[in-house]
Amino acid sequence: MTEHPPAEVLRHQLVTFRKNNRFAPYPSPIRRQAIQYANARTIQGATPSTIAAELGVATTTVSLWTHSTRSKSADAPAQTSPSELPLVPLVLRPAPQIPGPSQIVVHFADGTSLQACGFGQDSLARTIEILRKER
Fold it and tell me: What's the pTM?
């Protein structure tokens, strides 16, 4: 970790920037120094409100700075070589056979036939019931 300036110097830089640029984000160098300072003070046991008072910024700003640093280090993937990665068994199964649309062929006594496809199960059952009743 690089050495950060004393709190008074950092506070002066942050307050001066905020006076001139009310809604702009802090420049990267100043922000980086402030985050380093906030993290060092957090390790020493200082609360976000104490650090905020020292730097002249909002408590939520300090909380965001220290939280973003913690979450980045927690989310960073561990560096491993391919030989250290565990092998995972892989099971391949054939895809299930999905039946096509239902088809029905009806042969009438006079020799004609009726073919229909695309019936759902319920529609096919009702059609068969209707054809039986009409006999």
Answer: 0.48
